[in-house]
Amino acid sequence: MASRADAVPIGAPAASRAAPTAPSLGGAVRAALGDFFYHSWRLLPANVVWAVVAMALAAAAVVVPIAIVLVPLLAIPTAGVFRVTTRIVRGSSVSFWDAVDAWRSDVARTLAVGTGVVLALLVLGTNLVIGLGGDSPLGWAIATMAAWGLAVLWLVAWTAWPILEDPERARTPLRLRLRLAALLVLAHPIRIGLLGVGLAAFLVLSTVAIVALVTVSVSFGALVTTRYVLPAADRLEAQLDGVAPPDRT
Fold it and tell me: Would residue 175 be called left, alpha or beta, if left means φ above 0 and alpha means ψ between -120 and 50 degrees?
């Protein structure tokens, strides 16, 4: 597969890219199943590391509530999982050590993203609780806006991680990668919304079956997301450069 290591930012000449085929959610799931079969020995350890960190942070927050400030650390193993899945999808050489590399490189960027997500979650969650606890139309309006904000945050976060860890966008500035993720959600609200609903249902069921959460769920969800998001992001960039007509679904 042709490399985009010198990732062409949004606004580059149209001749420098081609418009990829629009992805489908079903196709992403089928491709992810094949990916997981062939790369499970790389993905399972990354998933276990993520689960161990998540459970340790949750336990610490329960025992010492102030430990909630450590929650952004979960962004590091999350980046590790997506470093593996993006390299699988791009057809690059890949190993478990790509996930480990997330603990050594781009840590400041990863923690900044994780902190931003956690702060947004706390603000929106607080507004939701306060709004639902009130008995006025204003409170209900605040709760409604907060609920929509949480939904958007969920979609943008899942859309952003594959773009942030895409090896072929490694030289693209962070703000452009985050901008692309937000534009992708705006351009395809139904498609990305269905992906978000499916991921939420899958992870909720996996939480009940804790073994699945520890060993499989996050890495498989990341694979499906990566298979779906990267072609969509490539296509959207091409459309913004005038290679293909807009396709809003």
Answer: alpha
**Would you say the C-alpha torsion 177, 214, 108, 114 has a positive or negative sign?**
positive
Residue 20 phi, psi (nearest 5): -70, 165
Give 47-111 as a 3 state SS string: HHHHHHHHHHHHHHHHHCHHHHHHHHHHHHHHHHHHHHHHHHHCCCCCCHHHHHHCCCCCHHHHH
Cα–Cα distance for residue pair 18/223, rounded to 1 Å:
23
Nearest to 222 by CA among 83, 126, 40, 101: 83
Residue range 61-75, pLDDT digits in tens: 889 988 889 999 999
- How far apart, in whole angstroms, are the C-alpha atoms of residue 36 and residue 27? 14
Kindly report the number of other CB atoms within 10 A of residue 176's CB atom: 16
Say what the pTM is. 0.83
